[in-house]
Amino acid sequence: MTPLSRRAFTAAAAGALLTGCGGARAAHPSGTGGPTTTPLHTTGSSRPPANPVRALARSIPVGLRIPAIGVDTPVMQLGLAADGTVEVPPIAAHDEAGWYRYSPTPGQTGPSVILAHVTVGAYGDGVFRHLARLRPGDRIVARLENGSQPEFTVTGVRTVAKSDFPTAAVYGDVDRPELRLITCGGPRSGSGYLDNVIVFAELAPAGS
């Protein structure tokens, strides 16, 4: 994968901070605010996939569709802000999701990370306003620059306190193509939210 190797991506993500409605604090696992001691999602080779799939070639995501919650959005590219936080999409009337460009592209081996807002200030609801309604088995379809549309199956949905953001579960190295969708959730605190909603999904076998 490019621009970072899988090992480099994992290390970079562990030290990154996520702010705004796209994410939460993501400290290094050994520091304050790291992942909970009980994993939110089993990753890596400890849980072999029921239906092994072939990883796809790298291709930038340009769109995302989630039929169960009525999402059909363009996808922009996001990087790291000057303060070391992961960028989030801008607050705008035409809200859209953003792919963290230092993660694998959807369908590559590893966790591809896509973020979006639950609300966009005075503009109202954000793209991921109903993300917490997803359930295991729901479909997510990524539209890639090369014209392919890999489909993912939701395996889990978790709401976690931002102070306990599960860095290892979200960004940790895995041996198959996976997807992470992240937004804000839970109780409001001022203009923000106290929690994050995280969706875990796996690439579905072709033709499934």
UniProtKB/TrEMBL annotation:
Query: Would you indicate the residue range of the signal peptide?
Result: 1-26
Q: Could you tell me the keywords of this UniProt record?
A: Hydrolase, Signal
The keyword Isomerase is annotated on this UniProt entry = no
Q: Give GO terms: molecular function aspect only.
A: hydrolase activity
* Classification via InterPro entries: Sortase, Sortase_dom-sf, Sortase_F, TAT_signal
Query: Which Pfam families does the record cross-reference, listed alphabetically?
Result: Sortase
Return the Low complexity bias intervals: 24-46
**Keyword set includes Transport:** no
Please list where the region (Disordered) is annotated.
24-51
Q: Which domain of life is it from?
A: Bacteria
What NCBIfam families does the record point to?
class_F_sortase
The name this protein carries in UniProt is LPXTG-site transpeptidase (Sortase) family protein
Species per Swiss-Prot/TrEMBL record: Actinacidiphila alni
